[in-house]
Amino acid sequence: MRTYQMDQGWYFAVPDDWAAERDSQDGHYLFYPPDSDLTLHFTPWRVEKEGQPAPAELMIGAFLRGIPEDAVPLNKTACRLENFYVKGFAFARKERGQKVFRRLIGYYGPGELLSVGIFGTSETDCDRAVGMLAGLQKI
Q1: Going by C-beta distance under 8 Å and a sequence separation of 6 or more, which residues neighbour residue 52?
Q2: pTM exceeds 0.90
Q3: Where do runs of H (alpha helix) occur along 12-122?
Q4: Phi and psi dihedrals of 70, rounded to 5?
Q5: What whole-number distance in Å separates Cα of residue 26 and Cα of residue 42?
Q6: Which CATH architecture group holds 37-130?
Q7: pLDDT above 90 for 80
Q8: Structure confidence at residue 75 (pLDDT)
Q9: Is the pLDDT of residue 76 over 80?
């Protein structure tokens, strides 16, 4: 396993053969296995005003605006992280004639939000990837 440090002190470990990319312009991190369409997309956010962290409600509100109405809540225990609230959702969409499964998880607290998107054509692979979030750390 290789551990990657993301902005704002977030750490995530993936198997050695997985690829990792960072979009320095947008601050996104992508992780994906070889020979698969599974992708994990991480976006860390930190918001302060005059040195004070934004309220947690503001952080989760920003995350929830991107959740489709037909998404169903995920089991929070599958992706919890100490000292952070979490909300997760699952849904699927037809794209280019193929069903794509999505898992969207938001870890939030005052001034902090880590938005995680998991995308793939295998629902089982997406659910396994949610389980990988147990190794997520914030230092």
Answers
A1: 111
A2: yes
A3: 56-64
A4: -90, 5
A5: 11
A6: 2-Layer Sandwich (3.30)
A7: no
A8: 83
A9: no
